[in-house]
Amino acid sequence: MTVTRDRMISGTLKFHLFLCVVFIFAPIIGSFVFSLNSDRFPSLPLGSFSTEWYRLIWEDPFVWAGFFNTMIVGFCVAVIATVLGFGGAYTDYRYKFFGKQIYMALALLPPTIPVVILGLAMLAYLSRIGLSGDLYSIIIAHGVMCSPFAMAIIRLRLSQMDPDLEAAAWNLGGNEWVTLRHVVLPFTFPAIIASLFITMAVSFDEFAVAWFVSGLHETLPVKVLGFLQGQVSPRINAIGSLAFVSSISLIVLAQMLLRTPSTRSRSASED
Amino acid sequence: MQNTPIVAFDQVNKSFGNFVAVENVSFEIGRGEFLAIMGSSGCGKTTTLRMLAGLEAPSQGRILLDGEEVGDKPTWSRDTPMVWQSLALFPFLTVQENVEFGLKMRKVPRKERIERARKWLDRLGILEFADRNIAQLSGGQRQRVALARSLVTEPKILLLDEPLSALDAHLKVRMQSVLSNLQKDLGITFVYVTHSMSEAFSMADRVIIMSRGKVEQIGTPEEIFHHPTNRFVAEFLGSSNIFTGVISSVNGDTLSVRTKEGVFEIRNQKKLEKQAGDSISFTVRSEQLKLDLEDSKPLLNSIVATVVGEEFSGAMANIFLETADGLELQVQKPHEEIRKLGVRHNRNVVAYFDPDQCHILSEG
Question: If you classify domain B7-234 with CATH, what class do you get?
Fold first, then answer.
């Protein structure tokens, strides 16, 4: 009796999960399907299969310019945010000091601020100090946005580190800097790589803040808005599909990196 | 240099905020000695060890290492490797790389490093695992890696912080003999922190017993076991036959002690300065306490008590008694003798002892 009821509950839950996934992914899949459709407007029934829209964006120098800007920003942001995030996470792991709670809360704050407000504030601030309207403006703004993600990822990894590990390295003759390089960095390495991927993906997709501070140096998401304002073109579906594939690959890679080592270290710390 | 102790603690204090972890601790450790520091958790034994390692700086007092005052010299500038309770092996390095770590930190050239690490792996019988990951090793193998990693720099002193606590009983005994043999072969000083009496007493040349940050007694296992200086040590070592009272008269070496349980005659074997009116505590070892049935003739130094429990281990039986006043006594006798006597649960019996077979606690 209980078995059948459990099976029913589990079946219902599975179906519910399936519906949720469909709901979330339907627009993305739709966009992907229509990007390969020959029709000008996204409507059913579908026309013939076509890579026309991919060819058009391939040949569009503005799309390429946007793509390069996105890549440059993405790389720089990933590195800067990960370095800052590591610093924050390590501070939290190693030190106790007055006001640490407030310090940690502030460090984790940026993602909770609405992006439009953050974008506006960034624009106001950066233009006042003469740093707005260039590619590095986006890098600065995205660095602020992404560091907390990096910090969260690296902090999670550090929380799995035996506190005796660093002390053991000191005890064996390594000073604090040497230990940081030979023990803390290797231990957190998977999380550092994962953080690079995830912060890059976040920067890659981010539109609002980039739109505010970028000036003439538009990233791809900003470019997409430009397209939309002019005309509705299936090229957007093509760009969207490519952007989705690259972001999701970065996230999946990060997940894989975060998973393997944590299970390994858990089995190691069992006894 | 040979005659100076390798370690000397001189009136060392350590407090964390308002909490005093170690108070006025002084002792010396000789070269090549196996010293165990023993006590229950929070007694300050680990803090003492960490100060010796340089992981904590003393709040007051001096610590001399090899004749040199180390004070707050950081751990990486000392040669005081430690074997950790958690082992603290580096999970991202292989066994070989773990062992090489200390040499790498000392900038030993690669070739020499590999050779020396392999020598120690071989010595501890784990050379075949050199290229394995730490996660692939068993508990006992990891223990050996931890030992090899600490010994590879060939230090004069090795610190061990409850290294065997995670092992099962069988492996524990095996590792104890590995450790004792290693210490004898190497001739270096081992400082071993533990809460386990069997570990401390089976391996150490001398034992320090600590409680609440203070040293309670220092001595060889023999001395401590047979002559605990105070009530704490006696209780800590599991002795339950502790009598407390006031001396009513002194007659040469014989003291009459009035306690709640009656008047006892005891021999002052160590000729301690005692006079009538002094308060005094003494113990009688459980195997020296004799037992008889209640209805037999009156005896010297006898106590009437009720049997409240029995425990059998091999050929020996432990009988737990309680007097009307609530004093707990423990008698150890061969199983056979207990059976003949007809001792049973809830039965009243008479426990008695010889005046020569009690031990006076010197510190009250």
Answer: alpha beta
